[in-house]
């Protein structure tokens, strides 16, 4: 996209340079035209040089025709330049709107990521709490199991003593 903008800028600069050359030529032709008109006036004063005067008039007419063509070309160049400027402006506007859209999208994704990080942190905290609770319950069950095994052992001992006492009685 940047290359497109560079091309358009280069094209604009090229057309601006052409425009300036055309204007300079117009100024030179105007100066030349003024000189020709002065020369023509001098020739009209001198009757013997009437043929030169006709020739100068033709030259002036030719120069006028050239000036008219240059003016038309200049107008065409101005229209082209305006088209290119409008195109560059539209492209820049599109580029800016795309940048804004991308900034909003990045901001939304960043916010979503932040929310997910908070959720993960909360889940990790709950998992840690549950793990501690589970460890405590396992410890309690281990103690209860040890007590039960002790009670089972004591029961078997008492049962064995009772059986032995019954045998004795």
From TrEMBL:
Subcellular localization(s) per the UniProt record = Cytoplasm
An annotated GO BP:
centriole replication
Keywords from the UniProt entry: Coiled coil, Cytoplasm
Q: Kindly state one GO CC term assigned in the UniProt record.
A: deuterosome
Segments forming a coiled coil: 99-126
Establish whether keyword RNA-binding is in the entry: no
Q: What is its main location?
A: cytoplasm
Protein name per the record: DEUP1 protein
Task: Give the organism the record lists.
Answer: Psophia crepitans
């Amino acid at each position: 996209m940047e290359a497109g903008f560079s091309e358009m800028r280069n094209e604009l600069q090229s057309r601006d340079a052409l425009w300036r050359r055309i204007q300079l030529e117009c100024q030179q032709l105007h100066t030349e035209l003024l000189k020709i008109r002065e020369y023509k006036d001098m020739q009209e004063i001198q009757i013997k040089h009437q043929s030169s005067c006709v020739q100068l008039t033709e030259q002036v007419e030719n120069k006028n025709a050239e000036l008219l063509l240059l003016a038309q070309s200049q107008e065409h160049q101005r229209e082209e330049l305006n088209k290119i400027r409008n195109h560059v402006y539209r492209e820049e506007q599109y580029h800016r709107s795309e940048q804004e859209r991308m900034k909003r999208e990045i901001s939304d994704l960043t916010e979503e990521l932040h929310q997910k990080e908070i959720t993960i942190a909360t889940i990790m905290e709950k998992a840690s709490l549950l793990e501690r609770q589970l460890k405590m319950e396992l410890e309690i069950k281990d103690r209860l199991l040890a007590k039960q095994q002790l009670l089972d052992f004591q029961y078997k001992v008492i049962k064995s003593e009772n059986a032995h006492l019954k045998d004795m009685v």
